[in-house]
């Protein structure tokens, strides 16, 4: 056992500090989601601006690309996207309330569940309609 | 990165793997006393503070109730009354010159802390609020007085934080997680003089020699000689033990305070401030039994008395619980408001550790080993004495490890936070004064040698005994035989056990042979100090054949001023680890300083 | 064992130039967020919910929108606010996760460049857009109905 | 006497499994998990279980502790994935049908077993000027006055014991050890809002920095980890507002 100790300052091989996953609560997980959705939206936005820019090229080119948005697979993707935007937006408002409203900190957890609730309601309004639109296309 | 925290450590020499440092003043211990001294000394000299814990981990942070000072912010008060209470509380074994200083300088001590930033609770006028505490009375015992300055029930926490903050402000150099294990004495002209301390760096296992002109010991108490205690695991009395082994006498070691209200079975403290706010002790039948014992101030009688009454209630069969082995602290009538605002921490302790909510139920309590009145003998300049009146130049002690003696045979609540501030400050001041004119005492050859030998012999010991088992037996035996009530017989049994444990200690082994953060090794070292101190406590207790303050002898139930109105001085005369205490401990007496108050019967 | 550096390895705070980007970035995220809620939800609602939803989106639909200054301003605002918001958010992520300052610099550069290019591109598109471009006759039906016959 | 002991909740001892993330720098190259069975009472704390292991099974197990009742801040560690003080975590509050995972707090350099290098943490603390800076000198021998209400504003943040449970629960701190971290902000808050202090601006300026309050993403891990029940995120929010609008 009495191995000569490494000098304290020597850089040791980095075992990731890691260990188990930190078991955060709603606050941490809502942040994780906020972050993931934010990044997802950002990359979508890059693409979306490029495709919209095609209207400057020609109607045909634009319609060709936008047409792909109408296929069922993209339709499902749009559900995901809209879900992400709604969550990000609602949770963004929750964060803003935490920052600027005196009682925001106290009610942050409640507000998270409200975000979830409103998200469910909005998605319930959007998803069926959207899917009908998307899939009715297939029939045509 | 190594532990010294302020970046400004000077380059140190390393010779044969031992690091050498030089400071004008070295302070051992970063609790309340150590840091108060550092703040006083820091601006005037090169000061290094060595602590086995990060400063904010020191046990001063656990103190709850308050710090006494006759500010008279809420009602009439005077430092003379405070002096009297201190003397009477200590059952007249208090050195009255020191008690006068304590009470007089208390006022400045509190104001100093406030000015440093301590967030005391406030009166409606914005002044420091004060509350009642055991044994503190108006006009020589007429009625309880509001004298304790407090910050909720975390006064010690606030003191520790405030002192640490101010050390940061002053850029005090700390060596954290360095265990001081030896005081180096060099023979100069035939006299042994302190020249340095030797510390073991926990992180690396390296040894450091700190040479200094003045050395202050502020290492706190040693409650871990007992099992049921309010003290931290780290309060193993290293500082007191080190000086003991160097032949410095120890004063009044038989006086150990048992705090009445420890959480039953656990020892975690519930502050006397609770009773200060009006909480009541009750026995199994709900009777407020303190009315019988101390009709005037009832539950606010000094701790020794209350603790004794509690044990008596239990012994006479009036205890509560399935085993009838505790009494109740009833806070229910205080209301949630008072508990949450003035006593939030203890409310939480009861909830967390016993699952009892003080707002609605009484809390099971029993006395818990709390405070060492005795320790390293010092004078009012915090200078350490080598006998009844000889000062050891350059050596200082303050705080719980020291015995000035302002607490006599029983400390009043809130007087210890006061002690660490008043005498910590004095230690700082006088140590600098001394360092200004003194020269470094030269180091002997290989000053770290003895510590290296001790460490290596423990590290390589191939015995069969486990340190933890020995320690457990010591603590249980002390609880059994040297607690609130003791007799010659019970103390004799403890003595025998200690003798046996000493044998065992020679035959230990440890698991961890490594260098870095070897707490296994340090626990073994600490046990050595615990054994030494427990032995002195028991030996001194056996010799005092009377009952006084914290020392209650069932076989000698009365105070005996004729024979025992004197401090005990224990001297090491041989090998501290030799088998029989009688081989190496010699007891002597030291007169008590009396100025104004002649001993009287102690009634409340 | 994680090898992190001591906090603020440089003892003095890094920021010493005039504008405090961290603070304004933080404020911007919140301010733009509030506005974006309106803009994006409006956008989504019009595009995906009204009428036949996504199915109805084609050149004619978009051109129809961009023919009115109202939607021009709407989309322009959305473009700027969202891209800056997103890019600033991505910058935060890079600050959090980039293992070396150099990698961080490269990534932040890339984010900045892509956002800048797309903002310029998008702005140009919105302002130079002609809802009734000259098209071959077979594509005439793709144009919005208000276009004059070619 | 005093052995009122466990009678209060006289339960029998039972065996639990602790899986501890070990790292002995003298022998290990990297951290590893090791499992221990230990006999405890339901009223015991995780600290008691760790002590039992150290004292009865394996003396090399290393961790910091002192007060044993949640007041000194020595023993913050990650228990079942969350930062807690071992001495304040009762066995009965955990699910003992499953093994209990114990590991060092995250984001500070691991030194040995459950011990991390606390220096970066204290460095951040020192950097916010955590001490009273008052321009006025109080009347000699007198306290500065402060109303009960003024005192109440910063009461919460005076409770901090510098245990680091908050800072090492913060996802921003894990990925970027440069962030001041919640504990430093809490201690800055304690002085920024102290009516006796005159240097709020200095501290706000320090925290109005790339690594200051703006890094906080309101994940609330800190608030949930704080063994003293300090509303850490709220304190941070108050500091943010103070940076924006000035102190109050
Ligand atoms: C639970 C509790 C509540 C209390 N409540 C009150 C109260 O309300 N009012 C009151 O007046 N008193 C109270 N007391 C008593 C008072 O708190 C203590 O007596 C006092 O704080 C002791 O301070 P100190 O500075 O002497 O020691 P400590 O604060 O214990 O500090 C000791 C220091 O020495 C260091 N040290 C020890 N050994 C070594 C070594 N070998 N090498 C290096 N460093 C070492 C430690 O690291 C530590 O920094 C209470 C005590 C307890 C336990
Ligand atoms: C719909 C309205 C939106 C609102 C209310 C909103 C709100 C917010 C807020 C308040 C933040 C700061 C979070 C924090 O500091 O912790 C944020 C971060 C972020 N937002 Fe948005 N946002 C919206 C739309 C968008 C869009 C359209 C994008 C993509 C382009 C986006 C991408 C991001 C990213 C990448 C982050 C950084 C995430 C992080 O640091 O964890 N957001 N958003
Ligand atoms: S704020 Fe709470 S968790 Fe953070 S260091 Fe202070 S006491 Fe520990
Ligand atoms: S965990 Fe970190 S992100 Fe903010 S709320 Fe606490 S500091
Ligand atoms: S040991 Fe002191 S906080 Fe846990």
Automatic annotation (TrEMBL), chain A:
<dbReference type="Pfam" id="PF01127">
    <property type="entry name" value="Sdh_cyt"/>
</dbReference>
<protein>
    <submittedName>
        <fullName>Succinate dehydrogenase / fumarate reductase cytochrome b subunit</fullName>
    </submittedName>
</protein>
<keyword id="KW-0479">Metal-binding</keyword>
<dbReference type="InterPro" id="IPR000701">
    <property type="entry name" value="SuccDH_FuR_B_TM-su"/>
</dbReference>
<dbReference type="GO" id="GO:0006099">
    <property type="term" value="P:tricarboxylic acid cycle"/>
</dbReference>
<dbReference type="GO" id="GO:0016020">
    <property type="term" value="C:membrane"/>
</dbReference>
<comment type="similarity">
    <text>Belongs to the cytochrome b560 family.</text>
</comment>
<keyword id="KW-0472">Membrane</keyword>
<dbReference type="InterPro" id="IPR034804">
    <property type="entry name" value="SQR/QFR_C/D"/>
</dbReference>
<dbReference type="GO" id="GO:0009055">
    <property type="term" value="F:electron transfer activity"/>
</dbReference>
<feature type="transmembrane region" description="Helical">
    <location>
        <begin position="110"/>
        <end position="132"/>
    </location>
</feature>
<dbReference type="GO" id="GO:0046872">
    <property type="term" value="F:metal ion binding"/>
</dbReference>
TrEMBL record, chain B:
<protein>
    <recommendedName>
        <fullName>Succinate dehydrogenase flavoprotein subunit</fullName>
        <ecNumber>1.3.5.1</ecNumber>
    </recommendedName>
</protein>
<keyword id="KW-0274">FAD</keyword>
<dbReference type="Pfam" id="PF00890">
    <property type="entry name" value="FAD_binding_2"/>
</dbReference>
<feature type="binding site">
    <location>
        <begin position="416"/>
        <end position="417"/>
    </location>
    <ligand>
        <name>FAD</name>
    </ligand>
</feature>
<dbReference type="InterPro" id="IPR003953">
    <property type="entry name" value="FAD-dep_OxRdtase_2_FAD-bd"/>
</dbReference>
<dbReference type="InterPro" id="IPR030664">
    <property type="entry name" value="SdhA/FrdA/AprA"/>
</dbReference>
<dbReference type="InterPro" id="IPR003952">
    <property type="entry name" value="FRD_SDH_FAD_BS"/>
</dbReference>
<feature type="binding site">
    <location>
        <begin position="51"/>
        <end position="66"/>
    </location>
    <ligand>
        <name>FAD</name>
    </ligand>
</feature>
<feature type="domain" description="FAD-dependent oxidoreductase 2 FAD-binding">
    <location>
        <begin position="24"/>
        <end position="417"/>
    </location>
</feature>
<feature type="binding site">
    <location>
        <begin position="29"/>
        <end position="34"/>
    </location>
    <ligand>
        <name>FAD</name>
    </ligand>
</feature>
<feature type="binding site">
    <location>
        <position position="259"/>
    </location>
    <ligand>
        <name>substrate</name>
    </ligand>
</feature>
<dbReference type="Pfam" id="PF02910">
    <property type="entry name" value="Succ_DH_flav_C"/>
</dbReference>
From TrEMBL, chain C:
<keyword id="KW-0472">Membrane</keyword>
<keyword id="KW-1133">Transmembrane helix</keyword>
<feature type="transmembrane region" description="Helical">
    <location>
        <begin position="25"/>
        <end position="46"/>
    </location>
</feature>
<keyword id="KW-0349">Heme</keyword>
<keyword id="KW-0408">Iron</keyword>
<dbReference type="GO" id="GO:0046872">
    <property type="term" value="F:metal ion binding"/>
</dbReference>
<keyword id="KW-0479">Metal-binding</keyword>
<dbReference type="InterPro" id="IPR034804">
    <property type="entry name" value="SQR/QFR_C/D"/>
</dbReference>
<feature type="transmembrane region" description="Helical">
    <location>
        <begin position="105"/>
        <end position="129"/>
    </location>
</feature>
<protein>
    <submittedName>
        <fullName>Succinate dehydrogenase / fumarate reductase membrane anchor subunit</fullName>
    </submittedName>
</protein>
<dbReference type="Pfam" id="PF01127">
    <property type="entry name" value="Sdh_cyt"/>
</dbReference>
<keyword id="KW-0812">Transmembrane</keyword>
TrEMBL record, chain D:
<dbReference type="InterPro" id="IPR025192">
    <property type="entry name" value="Succ_DH/fum_Rdtase_N"/>
</dbReference>
<keyword id="KW-0003">3Fe-4S</keyword>
<keyword id="KW-0479">Metal-binding</keyword>
<dbReference type="InterPro" id="IPR009051">
    <property type="entry name" value="Helical_ferredxn"/>
</dbReference>
<keyword id="KW-0560">Oxidoreductase</keyword>
<dbReference type="GO" id="GO:0051539">
    <property type="term" value="F:4 iron, 4 sulfur cluster binding"/>
</dbReference>
<dbReference type="InterPro" id="IPR012675">
    <property type="entry name" value="Beta-grasp_dom_sf"/>
</dbReference>
<dbReference type="InterPro" id="IPR004489">
    <property type="entry name" value="Succ_DH/fum_Rdtase_Fe-S"/>
</dbReference>
<keyword id="KW-0411">Iron-sulfur</keyword>
<comment type="pathway">
    <text>Carbohydrate metabolism; tricarboxylic acid cycle.</text>
</comment>
<comment type="similarity">
    <text>Belongs to the succinate dehydrogenase/fumarate reductase iron-sulfur protein family.</text>
</comment>
<dbReference type="GO" id="GO:0046872">
    <property type="term" value="F:metal ion binding"/>
</dbReference>
């Amino acid at each position: 056992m009495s191995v000569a100790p490494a000098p304290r300052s020597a850089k040791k091989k980095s075992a990731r500090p890691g260990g188990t996953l930190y078991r955060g609560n709603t606050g941490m997980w809502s942040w994780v989601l906020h972050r993931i959705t934010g990044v997802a939206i950002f990359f979508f936005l890059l693409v979306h601006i490029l495709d919209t820019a095609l209207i400057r090229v020609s109607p045909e080119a634009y319609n060709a690309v936008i047409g792909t948005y109408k296929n069922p697979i993209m339709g499902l993707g749009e559900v995901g996207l809209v879900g992400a935007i709604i969550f990000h937006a609602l949770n963004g408002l929750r964060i803003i309330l935490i920052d600027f409203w005196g009682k925001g900190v106290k009610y942050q957890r409640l507000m998270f569940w409200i975000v979830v609730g409103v998200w469910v309601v909005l998605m319930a309004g959007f998803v069926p309609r959207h899917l009908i639109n998307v899939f009715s296309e297939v029939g045509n | 990165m190594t532990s010294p925290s302020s970046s400004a450590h000077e380059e140190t020499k390393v010779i044969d793997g031992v690091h050498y440092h030089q400071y004008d003043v070295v302070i051992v211990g970063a609790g309340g006393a150590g840091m108060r001294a550092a703040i006083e000394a820091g601006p005037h000299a090169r000061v290094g503070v060595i602590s086995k814990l990060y400063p904010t981990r020191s046990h001063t942070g656990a103190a709850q109730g308050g710090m006494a000072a006759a500010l008279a912010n809420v009602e009439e008060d005077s430092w003379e009354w405070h002096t009297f209470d201190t003397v009477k509380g200590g059952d007249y074994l208090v050195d009255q010159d020191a008690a006068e200083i304590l009470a007089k300088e208390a006022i400045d001590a509190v104001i100093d802390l406030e000015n440093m930033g301590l967030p005391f609770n406030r009166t409606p006028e914005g002044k420091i609020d004060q509350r009642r505490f055991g044994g503190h009375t108006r006009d020589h015992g007429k009625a309880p007085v509001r004298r304790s300055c407090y910050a909720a029930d975390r006064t010690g926490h606030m003191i520790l934080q405030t002192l640490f903050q101010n050390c940061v402000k002053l850029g005090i150099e700390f060596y954290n997680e360095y265990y001081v294990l030896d005081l180096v004495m060099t023979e100069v002209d035939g006299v042994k003089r302190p020249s340095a301390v030797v510390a073991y760096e926990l992180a690396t296992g390296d040894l450091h020699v700190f040479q200094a002109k003045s050395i202050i010991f502020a290492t706190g108490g040693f409650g871990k000689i007992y099992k049921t205690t309010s003290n931290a695991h780290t309060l193993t009395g290293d500082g007191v033990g080190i000086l003991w082994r160097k032949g410095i006498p120890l004063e009044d070691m038989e006086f150990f305070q048992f705090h009445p209200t420890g959480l039953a079975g656990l020892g975690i403290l519930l502050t006397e401030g609770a009773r200060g706010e009006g909480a009541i002790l009750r026995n199994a039948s709900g009777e407020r039994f303190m009315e019988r014992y101390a009709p005037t101030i009832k539950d606010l009688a000094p701790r020794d008395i209350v603790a004794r009454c509690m044990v008596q209630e239990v012994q006479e069969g009036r205890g509560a619980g399935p085993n009838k082995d505790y009494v109740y602290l009833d806070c229910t009538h205080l209301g949630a408001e008072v508990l949450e605002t003035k006593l939030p921490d203890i409310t939480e302790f009861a909830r967390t550790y016993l699952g009892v909510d003080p707002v609605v139920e009484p809390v099971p309590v029993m006395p818990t080993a709390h405070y060492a009145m005795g320790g390293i003998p010092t004078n009012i300049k915090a200078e350490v004495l080598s006998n009844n009146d000889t000062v050891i130049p350059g050596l200082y002690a303050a705080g719980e490890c020291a015995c000035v003696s302002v607490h006599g045979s029983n400390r009043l609540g809130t007087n210890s936070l006061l002690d660490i501030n008043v005498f910590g400050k004095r230690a700082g001041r006088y140590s600098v004064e001394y360092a200004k004119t003194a020269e470094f005492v030269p180091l002997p050859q290989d000053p770290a040698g003895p510590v290296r030998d001790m460490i290596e012999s423990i590290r390589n010991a191939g015995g069969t005994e486990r340190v933890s088992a020995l320690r457990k037996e010591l603590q249980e035996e002390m609880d059994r035989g040297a607690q609130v009530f003791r007799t010659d017989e019970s103390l004799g049994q403890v003595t025998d056990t200690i003798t046996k444990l000493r044998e065992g200690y020679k035959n230990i082994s440890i698991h961890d042979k490594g260098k870095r953060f070897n707490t296994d090794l340090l626990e073994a070292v600490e046990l050595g100090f615990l054994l030494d101190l427990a032995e002195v406590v028991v030996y001194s207790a056996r010799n005092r054949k009377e009952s006084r303050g914290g020392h209650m002898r069932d076989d000698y139930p009365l105070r005996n001023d004729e024979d025992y109105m004197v401090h005990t001085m224990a001297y090491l005369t041989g090998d501290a680890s030799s088998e029989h205490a009688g081989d190496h401990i010699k007891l002597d007496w030291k007169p008590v300083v009396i100025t104004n108050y002649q001993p009287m019967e102690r009634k409340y | 064992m994680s090898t992190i550096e001591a906090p603020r390895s440089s003892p003095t705070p890094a920021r010493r130039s005039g504008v405090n980007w961290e603070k304004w970035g933080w404020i911007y995220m919140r301010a733009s967020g509030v506005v974006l809620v309106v803009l994006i939800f409006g956008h989504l609602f019009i595009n995906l919910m009204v009428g036949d939803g996504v199915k109805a989106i084609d050149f004619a639909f978009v051109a129809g929108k961009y023919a009115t200054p109202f939607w021009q301003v709407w989309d322009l605002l959305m473009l700027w606010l969202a891209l800056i918001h997103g890019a600033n958010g991505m910058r935060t992520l890079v600050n959090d996760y980039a293992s070396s300052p150099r990698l961080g610099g490269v990534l932040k550069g890339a984010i900045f460049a892509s956002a800048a290019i797309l903002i310029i591109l998008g702005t140009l598109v919105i302002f130079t857009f002609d809802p009734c471009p000259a098209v071959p006759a077979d594509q005439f039906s793709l144009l919005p109905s208000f276009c004059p016959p070619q | 006497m005093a052995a009122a002991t466990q009678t209060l909740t006289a339960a029998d001892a039972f065996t639990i499994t602790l899986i501890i993330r070990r790292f002995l720098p003298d022998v290990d190259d990297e951290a590893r998990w090791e499992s221990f069975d230990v006999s405890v009472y339901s009223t015991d704390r995780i600290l008691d279980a760790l002590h039992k292991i150290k004292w009865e099974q394996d003396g090399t197990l290393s961790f910091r502790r002192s007060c044993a009742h949640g007041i000194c801040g020595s023993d913050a560690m990650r228990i079942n994935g969350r930062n807690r003080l071992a001495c304040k975590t009762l066995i009965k509050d955990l699910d003992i049908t499953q093994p209990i995972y114990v590991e060092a707090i995250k984001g500070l350099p691991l030194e040995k077993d459950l011990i991390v290098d606390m220096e970066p943490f204290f460095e951040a603390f020192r950097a916010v000027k955590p001490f009273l800076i008052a321009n006025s000198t109080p009347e000699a021998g007198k306290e500065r006055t402060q109303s009960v209400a003024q005192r109440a504003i910063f009461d919460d943040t005076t409770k901090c014991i510098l245990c680091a449970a908050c800072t090492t629960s913060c996802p921003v701190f894990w990925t970027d050890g440069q962030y001041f971290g919640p504990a430093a902000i809490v201690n800055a808050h304690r002085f920024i809002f102290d009516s006796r202090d005159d240097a709020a601006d200095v501290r706000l300026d320090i925290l109005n920095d790339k690594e200051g309050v703006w890094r906080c993403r309101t994940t609330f891990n800190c608030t949930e980890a704080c063994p003293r029940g300090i509303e850490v995120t709220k304190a941070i929010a108050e500091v943010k507002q103070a940076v924006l609008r000035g102190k109050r």
